[in-house]
Amino acid sequence: MSTSVEAALVERRAAALDLLAALEREHAAVVSASEDSNADDEHDPEGATIAFERAQLDSSIADLRAQVDQLDAALERVAAGTYGICEVCGLPIPPERLAVRPAARTHVACAG
Ligand SMILES: [Zn+2]
């Protein structure tokens, strides 16, 4: 089964990295915009907007990095032959779940 699973994981990883690069550029632009202006005073409405944007970007970037890490770990499990096996109960994870969450390590029920 591994080739198509692996291709799908590699594709998702590449898409996440593209998006990550775009968000990092946006983040750098927001940071330099706030440094160029005096708008970084938190009492200034403009500054608060920039701070909010930065916080949003920081959290999106952190999410994407976590996704890439999870996809890397999933690719390692493909290589090790343990991909699609629930880490909690040891039974196969349904393909429908893996289709939605390809980096899933457990069943929905076992994840909680
Ligand atoms: Zn399980």
Account of the protein in words:
The structure is a single chain. The protein is mostly helical. It has one domain. Helix content is 72%, strand content 0%. The protein has 4 helices and no strands. Helix 1 runs antiparallel to helix 2. The longest helix has 36 residues. The two termini are 27 Å apart. 9% of the residues are buried. The model has no long low-confidence stretch (mean pLDDT 89). Zinc ion (ZN) binds next to loops.
Number of domains: 1
Mean pLDDT: 89
How much helix, percentage-wise, in residues?
over 70%
How many E strands?
0
Distance between the termini: 27 Å
Cα gyration radius (Å): 19 Å
Give a nutshell description of this structure.
It contains 4 helices and no strands. It has 112 residues and is an all-alpha fold. Helix 1 packs antiparallel against helix 2 (45-80).
Describe the secondary-structure layout.
Blueprint: H1 2-36, H2 45-80, H3 95-100, H4 108-111
Helix pairs in contact: 1-2
Bound molecules: zinc ion.
Residues 86, 88-89, 91, 106-107, 110 line the site of zinc ion (ZN).
Features:
mainly alpha; elongated; binds zinc ion
